[in-house]
What we know:
Elements: E1 2-10, H1 16-20, H2 23-26, E2 30-41, H3 46-49, E3 52-59, E4 62-69, E5 73-74, E6 77-87, H4 99-105, H5 107-112, E7 114-130, E8 133-146, E9 149-163, H6 166-176, E10 182-183, H7 188-196, H8 217-241, H9 245-265, H10 273-306, H11 314-335, H12 338-350, H13 361-380, H14 388-408, H15 415-446, H16 453-465, H17 473-481
Antiparallel strand pairs: 1-6, 1-9, 1-10, 2-3, 2-7, 3-4, 4-6, 5-6, 7-8, 8-9
Helix pairs in contact: 6-12, 8-9, 8-13, 9-10, 9-14, 10-11, 10-12, 10-16, 13-14, 14-15, 15-16, 15-17
Amino acid sequence: MTVEIELKLALPAHAARRLRAHPLLRSAPVTRKVMLGLYFDTPELDLFRRKSAFRLRREGYHWVQTVKLDRGSVGGLSVRPEYEVAVTGNQPDFTVLPEVARAALTADIEARLAPVFSTEFRRTAWLLEIDNGRIEVALDIGHIRAGDADLPVAELELELLDGDGACLFDVARQLLATVPLVPEYRSKALRGYALLGAWRESPCKAMPAAIEPGLPAAEVWRLSFLAALAQFGHNLPGLLAQDDPEYLHQTRVAVRRMRILLSLGRGLALGRPAWREVLRSFMTVISPARDLDVLVTETLVRAVAGLPDPSRLAGLVSRAEAARVRAGRLARAAAGSTELTALTLEMGAALLDPLRDGPDALGWASQALDRRWRAFRKLARQFDTLDAEGRHRLRLLAKRLRYTGEVLAPLYGRRARRFLVQVAEAQDRLGVANDVAVAHRLLADLDRDGRMAYARGLVEGFIAAGAHVDEAAAPVRRVLRARPFWR
C-alpha cells in the first residue's frame, strides 16, 4: 500500500503550452505517454457509494490495477490509501491484491464488477527534486467517457513522492505565477460517475468540523478553518461553471465563516491579516452579485406573480437580469483569479499540521461567545427605541453571534442548536428592513435614466406592502431570554 498525497488543480487547455515552458519544469526530467483507464463498479455502483474506486490503466504496453479509498480533499489536496499492482491484461485480477484491499472490495462486489466508464488522456510528467522533497508534476489533457457522454479534462496533479506536503503548495504557487490554476477537488472517477448520472454537482452547505472539547483552542481553530475552506473549494467548480445563484450564496457563506474565524484567531495569534484583506476584497465583488441574484430570482419573481399586469415590469426585469449577468461574470472572474487561488494554496499549506499548543478550547470559545453575546444584548435591550440604522447594527451583531456560535457549536453538542435557531430567526426578521433597503438601492441604480420610474414604483410598493418590518421584536426578545449554551 502507498498513501497518495496529491494536489489537484484545473487549468484551461490553452494554458498547457505556457505550463510546459515554465522555468521550474524546463530543466526537469520529463516523460510523455498516452493513458487509457477503465473504471469498474457493480450495476448498483457499490464502490461509488463507498467512496472507493477500482481502475485498470494502460501505461504504454503495461496494465496497472489500482484500488483507491477516498479520504476527502481540502483546497485540492487529497490524502488517500492506494493499492496498485501490475497485471497482464485489461481484466481485473483480484488475487494479486493485498488482503486489506480485497476486504474493502468484498467477494460479492468482486463477482459483479464491470467497466462503467473510461478515461483517455495524454500525460506529460516532470520529476522535480527540490530542497524539501520530490514531486511528480503531471499534466493530463484528454477526456472522460461514459457511453455517448464525453467530458474534456485539463488538469494538473502534483504528487508528493518524498518529503513534506507543504512543498506541493510551494511548487503550485510558483506555477501559478505564469499559469491560471484553480483548486480541483473532483477526481476523474467522481466526474465519470457524474456522466453516469450517479453523482450530480450541487452547492455545498457548511461542513461540520471534526472538533471536540479536549482539543487545544488553536487546533479547534485550524479544523474549523479547514471545514470552511472545504466548503469554499467544493462550491468553486459550480460557481465557475454554472449560473446557479446557490453556488454564489454558499461561496459567500464559506468566506464569511473564514472571516469570522480570522477574527477569532486574533486572540490566539492566528489572525492572518493578509488573508483577511484578500477575502474582504473578494466579498466586495461577490456581494453585489448575490444582491442582484436575490432581486432577480426572488423579489422580482414575486412581484411579477403578485401584480395584476406583470407586463408593465418587463423592461425593468430585463435591465435587472442584464445587471445580474454582468455582476455574475465579475464574481466568476474573481473566483478564478490567480490572487484567490494563491490565497487558497497559502491557506492549505499553513493549515497542514496540527496545532497542539495553547489555551483550552472551551475557555477560549466561551470568551469569544460572551463578547458577541454582550454586544448583542446591550443593543437589543434598546430595541423599541432603535431607528433603522440601529436595527441594522443589531442585525450585524446577531449575524456575528450566530456565525461564531455555529463555528464553535461542535464543542457543546446538541444544546447549542435551540439557541442558534433563535438567533437565526432574529437575524432573519431584522434582515427584512435591510432587504427592503437593498432592493430600493438596486432599483434606483437600475433606473438612473428615469425611464423605469413607473415599474420601479410598482415594485417598491409591492415590497413595502409585504415587508412586515416590525415582526423582529418577538424573535429578538426570545434571544434575550435564551440561556447561552456555552455557560
